[in-house]
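Shipment paperwork, digital attachment
Item: protein structure file
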Amino acid sequence: MLIDARSLPQPLDETIHADLCVVGAGPAGMTIAMELAGAGIHICVVESGGEAPTNSDQRLARGENADPFYYRLDRTRIRSFAGTSNHWDPRGMIARPLDPLDFEDRPEVGRWGWPFDRAHLDPYYQRAQAIIKLGPCEYDVAAWGEGERTRRLDLGNDVLTTMYQRAEVGNFQRYRSSLARLHDVQVLLHATALELVTNEAGDHVDHLEVTLGGGRRCRVTAREFILAAGAIENARLLLLSRLTHRRGLGNRHDLVGRYFMEHPHAPSGVLHPSHDSVTARIAPYELRVLHGTKVWWALTIGEQALRRERILGSAWALRLATAPLVSDTARALLDCKKTLTSYRRPVPGTGRRVRAVAGHPLDVARILRSAWARRTGNTAPTRALLTFSAEQNPNPASRVTLGRRRDHNGQPQARLDWRLTDLDHRSIRVAQEMIDRAFRGSGLGWMSSRFGEENPPVALGGGFHHMGTTRMHQDPAQGVVNADGRVHGLDNLFVTGSSVFPSSGFANPTLTVVALAIRLAEHVRAILDRHA
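Attachment content:
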């Protein structure tokens, strides 16, 4: 059932008792609640926002940015039922599993792997597909059959075609009515988690302190606790819980908040097809329906090439366009729009981008005319714009800490210091050079305006894919949680979501988030059953 904490009677019984307390009603928290519903477990889900996003709730998502190039934090996450899935395209989320290589140690790029391999997670990926309303759990393009609609570009062994799927409908708001009917699941809305309080020994969480607004507070006691509030808030809540551990829970080795990762995103590179037939072969790479499933394809670098070149993974989407739509002026115009909508403040290079647009009014007019003609189908595309989503190398200096500013509950806001390394930038450049060579070598075309060559330089952003900060590792000196998601040093506190990712891969994280949540729900149910 859904309960608006603001409507609870006054005076309020100061303690809510549950078997399991979950912090966060986003995809991870909701998956756990739905997986355990009907199992005889009383679950309390604590959600800071309401049933739908509001400006007042979003104030609690504000934070500090050490990196001037990263978006305002309240633009990248949503305090609401269904969490940041409210950001998804109304047509549905884009998904694919992580690749087997993403789970492995890669010492050549200084990356640790996961404590289990991809095969271990495959059964949970199967179940996650159904929850997210995706098609078959099959991402090998060749397995979808051969024919004109599945004909891929043959670019050699280094540059391959990979598949994504798009969910049938919207976001996790679709499960609101289902959760509202569950009597053993209590979703407490407008209830903000403040601090996890442990016993005197500091090895067992006793209760969660919660504010209900207007100076009212309560506590939630439970046998087991799960943090599922996103990479920034999971780390922040652990750092705020300092009653028995001065540096925060799970932070004995100063790892909470470290290794923050994003997927660097940007449109970069213009493909010039060698002839019209190449343009026709690029068309299937755009979103379409294949055997009843919404899919789109992207270019990636093969595993052998990644190892040989010592670079990280990336995916490159191809979007057909006319020449004006892929010009430097068009990209500068797009970056100016991003500055207004996502950054909401000038970032380094904004002045050059504004001058690039203002100084070429005729180009802007051509861009607008071309955009309208492309939308109405009155012009044929002659180019393709590449947009990348890249893996970020885990970097301990890229981190979430507690800032100096405080929210309206009097608590320090999160401070994000997103740091990319030379390897991150080199991986993008080398991948794009390999794609250019593959097109030239196959006689299919050539590329201009590659990453690092743009004028003005491209505004490198992220995908709102927050990962890391409570990384998974069996060694407490190298990770915050173990392979089961339990915080090292505490016997009843778990963390789930993309904050536990030891590495990011290039795929959108939500399918893996849901798979991990199903796995954790299975584990916690066994614990609760064992001690019933």
